[in-house]
Structures are given as C-alpha cells and as structure tokens.
Amino acid sequence: MIPSFPEISGDWLKRAKRRYAASFMGGEYDRMPVDPMMLSHATVACGYSIRDFYERPELGAHCLAYAQEMYDLLPVTKYYFAHPWLPELGADLKFMDKTAPVPIDTVVKCAEDVDKLHIPDIKEIENGYTYTRLTGASRYIKEKLPEMFVPLAYCPEPVGSAAELCGVEEFLIWTETERELVKKMIDVYVETAITGAEALAKAYGSALISTGSVLENSDTMSPETIKDISPPALEKLVKGSLMKGAGPQVFYHFCGNRSLDYELYVNEIVITPFTIMQMGYFEREPFPASIMKERFGSRATIMPSVDTKLFVLPDQKRIYEQAKQQVINGRDSKMGCILGTCCEVPPNSHPANIRALVKAAEDFGRYGSW
Fold this sequence. Notes:
By secondary structure, the protein is of the alpha/beta class. It is built from 13 helices and 11 strands. Strands 4, 5, 6, 7, 8 and 9 form a 6-stranded mixed beta sheet that branches. Strands 1-11-10 form a 3-stranded parallel beta sheet. Helix 10 (223-243) links the parallel strand 5 (208-213) and strand 6.
C-alpha cells in the first residue's frame, strides 16, 4: 500500500523541464539544474527508512518524485538500486536496515567457477530479480507520475559489479595475477547488463543509460591496470546498449579519486550528444569543474560536484562556498553544466545542506548573470 502524496505541481514541472532541457539542447532558462544523485535520502526525508527505499520500489519512486519537487531538483524520477543484474548471475542479495542491499555470498569461489558463469538470455532476464524490480518501479511512475517518467537502463560500473562475483579483495588480487580471468568476469557482467538494457528498452523505450566506474580509481589501481580493463568495458557496455535500443542519453558516474586516471576516458568511451560526465574527487578534493570543462566540456554536459561527506555535517556555508566555486568555474561549459554531489547524497543528509547546494546554483548559476 503506497501512501498518498500531494500532486506534483504542474507549474514546477514545466519550469524544471525547461531548465533541464537547456543543459542539453542549448539556450537559456533560469539557472543550471542541480542533481545530488539522490536514492534512499528520498524515503528518509519523507519519514520512511533506508530499507524501505530498496525493499519497496514503488514507495521509493514516489518519495523520489516528491523530494525532487521539494528541493527544486530534476523533473524526472530515476529509481535504481545496488547490484542490478548480479542476481541473474547467481548472487543472492540481502536487504539491510542502514545500507543498500548486499550480496550474501560470492558466486565465484575459485578460478574454475568463472567458466561456469551462465549469461542469461532476454527471457531469463525478463523473469529475473532485477528486471522485475526495476519494471515494478517504472510501471508505477508511468501510471502515477507520467510527467516525471523516463525510461532508464541502469547498468552500473561493469568492473565493480564483476568484482562482486568473487569478492572485492580477491578481484583486486586477480587484477595483478589473473588479468584474463578478471576480463572474462567483466565481460560476463557486461553481456548480462546489455541484455538487461535491451529488455528495459523493449518494455519502455529509449532514453537513459546510467553507468560509470567506482571500484577502479586512482586509489585502488594503477593507471595502467585501469586502462586495460575499464574504458574497454564501458565502451562495450554503452555501445552494446545503444545498439539494443537503450539511450541515447548516457550518464557516466566516476566515483572516487580520479586524479591519475581521468585522462584515460577522454577519447576511449562512447559520448553521445546527450551525455552527462561526472567525476568524484581529485585526490581528496572534489574534481575541479575547470578540468572537467577543459577535457570533456566540448563533447558532454559536465557535472561538477560538492564533497558528499559534507552533507551529514551541520555546515551549510561550507557546502555553499564549495558549490559556488564549482558553479563559477563550470557554468560557461560549452555543452552545459549540472551541479551535483561527488557520489550519492547520504541518506541522513540534512535538508538544509541540499538547500545550500540549490541556493548556490540560484545565486551563481543564473543564465545571463555572468
């Protein structure tokens, strides 16, 4: 049973849509959009739990929509959850009270198990755990919140997802000792995710592919290792998903420290005319908007961000000042700019902190004011 919410304001939706479209289609509206990459904070802000977001997709989707209007963020509702397509490869997920679901155990316990992995076909995907939950949320949004519905092919980081098959520690060891085995696990996940994207596009049409890189970053792997396994996997995943009807918009989320490896992706991944490029950190600081604008701004909408850790602290001024600098340095990027957070905004973020993020966009990201 989903509780009733007030109707989303049509006037707000109209303004938010024009604002969001200006980031990709050109032209000016009022200010740059703000996207704190919100997941379970939406249910917490509406009085429910972190677990509710993942365990009750329809409720999570409606809380997301309501939070988007409440904070004056995006005109779309993008529901997704941790570890999609892993259950189709044999992983059992456990719901948690304070975090996203986690795998109960590894699927690959030794090198020989990699060859036993079964890549599901589209019928198996359509009857599987991930597709069922994602389409449950999509059906609900399309029925109850049609103006905020956007078809989403959620295919998260292929490298980190593959690592969950054998466990992150074992995976990191194998990247140095069993590189071809690692590539094979990544490829199994990529093929599965492409089929998942195909099934979702078949059901709801073309719109958005969401993917990226989290595990492999400048703190965990050498640039040489990342170059060998990450850009090729992302290129195959996005190209394959586009060929199967997903996209054409692509959202790339590059989490963690990117100081030594961001250049590896400049010319090695698929960038469509509707691509959003987000980078997390440069060493310990948020990735500078100026570098994003220089290296990606001529081909993609950039998403400079504010340090995610700040959102659980009572320090609105610090968030505001950090956002101000990112907005000023990124607002004239050729293909548009969206203000975001370095990773998912924490579930227990203070609402005043998200307001500080939006206020910086209002004060310094208004078109025609610079």
